[in-house]
Structures are given as structure tokens and as C-alpha cells.
Amino acid sequence: MSSTVQERIFQRLLTSVLPNDHDLDGESSGAMKDPRPDTTERPAFSLTTMSHNFRRFNSRIGIVFIFQHRLLRLLQWKSPSHTLSLCLIYTFVCLDPYLLFALVPTVVLLFLMVPSFIARHPPAPNCVYTASGPAIAPPPEVRAVSEISKDFFRNLRDLQNTMDDFSLMHDKIVALIGPPTNFSDEKLSSGVFLALFFSSIALFVSARFLPLRLMFLVLGWTAVAFAHPTLQQIVLETHEAHFALKQKQAAEAADSWIHRDITLATTPEIHEVEIFELQRRTSSGEYEPWMFTPVPYEPLSPARIAEERPKGSRFFEDVRPPPGWEWCEGMWTLDLGSTMWVAERCIVGVEVEEEGERWVFDQERGEDGKLGEWRRRRWVRTVRRKYLTE
Prior knowledge:
By secondary structure, this protein is an alpha+beta fold. It has 3 domains: 63-169, no CATH class; 183-261, no CATH class; 270-385, no CATH class. Helices cover 51% and strands 11% of the residues. The protein is built from 12 helices and 7 strands. Strands 1, 2, 3, 4, 5, 6 and 7 form a 7-stranded antiparallel sheet that branches. The longest helix has 33 residues, at 229-261. The radius of gyration is 34 Å and the shape is extended.
């Protein structure tokens, strides 16, 4: 009972510390947006559920680590005959890809059905194995290990090490791929973009003429061969002795071409944004400022038809530029050419008052003959990209 109370208290503390969805929406625009939807179909975060699911997961993940261990032994040439057998099977599949369809049922037969049958019909001691006779042993089953067994702690150890391996691999991949592709160095990323663009065009035309079977065969054998410890040492020594200097010279030549021949525009990109000031009529018949919204909320707008509340800010100071942009010099300017943008957008059911600042208002009239509920006027301001090229 006390542990349950402690978990509830800790969960409430954790919930108060974690940011909610509204706070996450206000993060920096430079961060990659998480595409995962915030759905209510799945359970929300709970410390009790998290602990329960982790124990269930860890008691059943052992078969994955066993497969991982055997695959690594196979690729690291711990048993050369097994590794060569894998290479021969891969060779047959590369030379005749239709064998790939027969490979799946064959693997199920040899590695699942046959061991299960032998477990049900174990051979007698010092006798020739025969498949006749009734089953004398229980069928093998994959069961979840006990939480107090050695296998459970082995799974914890392997899960711990796998998380560390994934973190290291993730950081190395991000450090390798991130700078050339995220436009932190716009000239470098532009050079990579041009290389990928022309390569894709060339491959669209010539891919059908490539010897794909031979290519996959050579690449597969090369990858497995380079996993051999002795060959790895030879390759590293050869690279340091003969190819390291040439690789450095090639990188310097590519960098020189990128920064010499690629010229980027230094003029900041400038656009004009608009905001509409909505004024709502009070009970006394006067209009008062109510909201600043990016849409005019005209009679045929979907939000107006659905009788939804306009979305926007109450004050000018709360209006923010679009993500990745910043305000230029100057303040908001009232657009006095209301007739032009009303005609361009084919807004119906409105009139344009020519006196003063040219208000735009609804033409709809109630039973008392008064004008509609909303007035609006358009303000404009210029923005420029926030991150400029120096």
C-alpha cells in the first residue's frame, strides 16, 4: 500500500515537472518537429504503467538478444564454416533472386520446425535416431523469464549495453550526416545538394543498365570479409599508409570547389505579412477592438460559417512573425487600399467605407436595420528571414 502511495506522489510530481503540449508547441522553430500525434487512443504516461510494461518487456526480450549474439558471431567469423555457408547462400540469392521466396519457408523449416520436432522426439542414448514412435517430451515453448532469474538480469545487462550502443551510433550518424545536410554551412550543404541532384538524374536514366546482381554480390562478400578481424587490421594499416593522404587531398579539393564556385545570395529575403483587426459591436451599437487575426473572418470563411471563435491575439504586441522569420524595421501600417484586396479575394457581402481609414464591414443587416456584428481593417508589416547568410 505504501509503495502505491509513493508511486502516485512521484507520478504527480513528475507530471508537474514535465512540460505540457502547449509548452512544447512554443519550442524553437529550429528544432525538428515531432511527427508523432498526441492521441488519446493510447494510455497517457504513468509511472506505474511504465514500470509494469518495462518488466514485461525485459522478461521477453531475451530471444532478440540471443539472435543478435548469434548474428554477431556469424559475421565476426567465430565459426568460419558457418560464415562461409551464409556467404554461399547469399551468393545463390544474388545470382537467382527468385530463391529469396524459397528462403523464408526453408529457414522456418530448418530453424523452427526441425528443432521443435527433435525436442518432442529426442533420440535414445547410444542409438541411431529414428523419427518413428509417439512424442515422449513436451513441446518447446518460448516463455517469459522470471523476474528473479539470472536470465532476467542478463536481459537487463544486454538492454543496458544496447542502449549505450544505440546512443553512440546515433551521435556518430548525426555528427556525420548533420553538418553536410542541415545547411549550418550553406555552401557545403549546397554542394551536397547539387551532387545528390545530378546523381539522382543520372541514376534515373542509367539505373536499368547497372549489373545489380553482380553489385550486390560483390558488396555482400566485401562487407562480410571486412568483418574478419585479421582483414580489418590489414585494411586499417593499408589505409593509413597509402590512402589517408589522398583522402585528405580529395576532401580539400572538394572543399575548395564548394567555397570557390558556389555563390549564395546575401540579400535577405523580405516579404509582407498581414493581420486583420476585428472590431465587435457592443450592445450600445459602437465598435470596439476585439482581436488581431491572420484571416479576415469574412462571411464565407469556414470559421465564420461554423460559428467558431476567431483565432488570434488580443494586442498588437502579441503578434509574432512566422517561424524562421523576424520583423524588419518599422511598425504595422494600416492598409488604406481596402477596395483592392477585397476585390482580389472575391469577398462578398461587404461594403467599403470611403471616409477616414476605409473600414471594411459586413453588409448583413438585422431586423432592426443595423449593420452586421463585425468590422475589420487590414494592417501590413514586412518580415525577413531570421537566419541570414553572412
